[in-house]
Design goal:
Blueprint: H1 3-16, E1 44-50, H2 56-69, E2 73-79, H3 82-95, E3 101-104, H4 109-114, H5 122-128, E4 153-158, E5 160-165, H6 166-171, H7 190-199, E6 201-202, E7 218-223, H8 239-242, H9 264-279, H10 285-288, H11 293-298, E8 302-308, H12 312-315, E9 323-326, E10 338-347, H13 354-364, H14 367-376, E11 380-381, H15 384-396, H16 407-411, E12 414-416, H17 423-438, H18 447-459
Parallel strand pairs: 1-2, 1-3, 7-8, 10-12
Antiparallel strand pairs: 3-10, 4-10, 4-11, 5-8, 5-9, 6-7
Length: 460
């Protein structure tokens, strides 16, 4: 362990002292006792999985701090890419090789609960005196399932903002300040669409709002498309627009039982997105599928693109591109909007060392770890002190996240990622359906019939 790591670990140990109980080397019961405390086996090794390679180093710092407080436990961290991650997790459930603790997602955990794969944390947390009211508003509630039990402690959250290429704006005669006050509506796109059109440039030097613009030979798109249509949630593609119309994805959230893809506000938003492709202001779905939207931005082919806060460091890393940040546009509601997604750490029900696994989750959910994560300037931790540390870390790099990503938290303009049962089936229905609209193979009103199929999942 380096000297800097020891220093950070020492501070984390002190902050975590209240959470640390003596961990013994004796083997024994690993399920909660009547009092809710963890069982006797609290030594040895536990496995922890995550999918973001950028976060692995700072979580190793957390593991080092945890080991200093709990020398009888060793945490082994493994990182997989997003697709491989979930395949390995679900295969691990079946094979009995899943990790003791893993980073969990709101789109996945309801089905894991239904399958009986997650360990309820309530009794452990009560026995250890761990509070769940220390996180950013609403995040802890997301991880309480319909059975009333808690299956995760929040680790971080994300929102959406606009990344833009400063040189492209300058060449177009656009002031960066102009992006701070854009307005949008699904009918004509408002000043936001006018900006997108003006920033679009064809191979002949004609802009999207000029006569003679050739949409078949676009050199720079005014707005990029993040890898796909967004299916049924459109987190980085269209949710920041639909969220300003008064539309909600489900009848209630979390644990809604009816989706609202048949509503005109949603269909109008999707139709507007399709119109940008038709006009040549945004790339086609076919051209971005399988491509990295960030790399396309880094190649100078997008003037703007909406994306999540987890992409900040990558979007600011491209040589030859000076990146800026702006908030999402103000919509018909008179406010901005952003989907609010929060991750958590969960314990696998099949863990052979639940006592140590729970202690690790408690530490991951504490300020001791989350302040370390915040100072690394990678993501926004769920605890406010960690969020503040992250904001300061980004500011030290010259990146203003306060007026772009965090403005949604301070202004209360976030809405929750949809949490329901049958999430994978909903995705299987909605992704090809929204894809068909984006590619011009179907009209937006075709989504009404698909919505009936989606809602049948909850009534059949």
């Amino acid at each position: 362990m380096s000297r800097s790591t020891r220093t950070k670990a020492g501070a984390a140990v002190a902050a975590f002292a209240a959470l640390t109980l003596s961990l013994t080397a004796c083997a024994g019961e690993t399920t909660p006792s009547a009092s809710g405390s963890a069982g006797g086996q609290a030594a040895g090794e536990i496995s922890y999985w995550l999918w973001d390679s950028n976060q692995k180093p700072v979580y190793q710092q957390c593991a080092d701090a945890f080991a200093a407080a709990n020398p009888s436990v060793k945490v082994n961290i493994t990182q997989y890419s997003w697709d491989d991650y979930w395949t390995n997790v679900t295969n691990g459930f079946v094979a009995g090789t899943a990790p003791d603790v893993f980073t969990n997602h709101l789109s996945k955990y309801p089905e894991f609960v239904t399958q009986g794969q997650l360990e309820p944390l309530d009794e452990y947390l009560a026995a250890d005196g761990v509070k769940t009211d220390v996180y950013q508003k609403g995040l802890a509630d997301l991880w309480v399932a319909q059975d009333g039990k808690r299956y995760g402690l929040p680790k971080d959250f994300d929102t959406v903002a606009i990344f833009y290429n400063k040189a492209v704006l300058k060449d177009a005669g656009v002031a960066e300040a102009d992006l701070q006050k854009l307005t949008w509506n699904p009918t004509d796109g408002g000043t936001y669409e006018k900006m997108i059109a003006h920033l679009t440039l064809d191979a002949n030097g004609k802009r999207g709002d000029e006569a003679g613009f050739d949409k078949s030979r676009v050199k720079v798109y005014g707005l990029g498309l993040d890898g796909g249509s967004g299916g049924g949630n459109g987190q980085t593609q269209w949710s920041m627009y639909s969220g300003t119309t008064g539309w909600t994805v489900t009848d209630k959230n979390p644990w809604g039982t009816a989706y609202n893809y048949d509503k005109p506000e949603f269909q109008g938003t999707i139709a507007w997105m399709r119109s940008l492709i038709e006009k040549g202001y945004m790339p086609s779905l076919e051209s971005v599928t399988g491509q990295s939207s960030a790399d396309i931005f880094g190649a100078g082919k997008y003037a703007m693109i909406t994306n999540g806060s987890w992409m900040i460091n990558q979007m600011f890393s491209y040589k030859g591109v000076e990146t800026g940040l702006a908030p999402t546009p103000i919509g018909p509601s008179g406010k901005r909007s952003s989907m609010y997604n929060g991750l958590a750490d969960s314990v696998w029900v099949g863990s052979k060392n639940k006592a140590a696994a729970v202690k690790w989750v408690e530490f991951l959910g504490s300020a001791a770890c989350q302040d370390l994560v915040g100072k690394s300037g990678v993501v926004f931790p769920a605890i406010p002190s960690g969020t503040d540390a992250a904001s300061a870390a980004f500011a030290a790099k010259g990146i203003d996240v306060a007026s772009s990503f965090l403005v949604h938290v301070t202004d209360g303009t976030t809405f929750l990622f949809p949490i329901t049962d049958n999430a994978s089936q909903v995705t299987n229905l909605m992704t090809p359906a929204v894809d068909a609209v984006f590619t011009g193979k179907a009209r937006a009103d075709s989504l009404t019939a698909v919505n009936e199929q989606v809602n049948a999942l909850f009534t059949g």
